[in-house]
Design brief:
The structure holds two protein chains of two kinds. By secondary structure, chain A is an all-beta fold. Helix content of chain A is 0%, strand content 56%. In chain A, the strands form two sheets. In chain A, strands 2, 4, 5, 6, 9, 10 and 11 form a seven-stranded mixed β-sheet that branches. A four-stranded antiparallel β-sheet of chain A has the order 1-3-8-7, with no helix packed on it. In chain A, a hairpin with a 2-residue loop joins β5 and β6. Chain B contains no helices and eleven strands. In chain B, strands 2, 4, 5, 9, 10 and 11 form a six-stranded mixed β-sheet that branches. Chain B has a five-stranded antiparallel β-sheet with strand order 1-3-8-7-6, with no helix packed on it. In chain B, β4 and β5 form a beta hairpin. Classes of the chains: A mainly beta, B mainly beta. Chains A and B meet through β5, β9 and β10 of A and β4, β5, β9 and β10 of B.
């Protein structure tokens, strides 16, 4: 148990569907992150939230829409995705705003397949 | 070329062998992380270091800042060590963010 819980673990959706990924952390951290991990590629940072405010959007297409209602919860809303968006989406949290000098705690990820 | 390069990309060894995974980076950093990812997808932070050496159980991580190089060693390897090991560095300048290596897939056979 890492203290970071992601749901669902697996998601299959069509290109016209709308779905949401959820992340919850029980560690009292003040920064939360969305990462994308595609096959045979390094982890890619998507979004960073620090004290509920978005501090980084790493040129992510608008079909991915993050939401951070409080420091413990993070959502990723998905709509009109493309098959190339199929990947493992990982949520993480840390104490420091940018996670550089404090460990990241990851959830188990959501394996997304877009058909 | 990636700012963080790991070698080897894949490594298969027998139980009990001493394992070394290497990470080289090309940017100034304030910290380097070693992460472990099991087949289910979840990632666990193993080490965060900015100088010298750290040890936790059978795992040892070293870093040489001048040479921009880090190694992760596993002593007396065990099949449960089979996972993907990821090196990540926190850039000190420019876009200050974590940059990840592509990972090393380690398989330990009984």
């Amino acid at each position: 148990e890492t203290g970071v819980t992601q749901t669902p673990r697996h998601l299959v959706m069509g290109m016209t569907n709308k779905k949401s990924l959820k992340c919850e952390q029980h560690l009292g951290h003040n920064a939360m992150y969305w990462y994308k991990q595609s096959a045979k590629k390094p982890l890619e940072l998507m979004f960073v939230y620090n004290f509920k405010e978005q501090t980084e959007n790493n040129s992510v297409p608008s079909r991915f829409s993050p939401e951070c209602p409080n420091s413990s919860h993070l959502f990723l809303h998905l709509h009109t995705l493309q098959p190339e968006d199929s990947a493992l989406y990982l949520c993480a949290s840390s104490q420091a705003p940018r996670g550089g000098n404090s460990p990241l705690h990851f959830g188990n990820g959501t394996r997304l397949t877009v058909t | 070329k990636n700012e963080v390069e790991q070698s080897p990309q894949n490594l298969t060894a027998q139980e009990g062998e001493f394992i070394t995974i290497n990470c080289s980076y090309s940017v100034g950093i304030s910290a380097l992380h070693w992460l472990q990812q099991h087949p289910g997808g979840g990632i666990v932070s193993l080490f965060m270091l900015s100088s010298g050496k750290k040890k936790h159980g059978r795992l040892i991580a070293t870093i040489n800042i001048q040479e921009k190089h880090s190694s992760l060693h596993i002593t007396a390897s065990h099949p449960r060590d089979s996972a993907v090991y990821i090196c990540a560095v926190f850039r000190r300048e420019g876009a200050q963010k974590l940059v990840f290596g592509q990972g090393t897939r380690l398989t330990i056979n009984p």
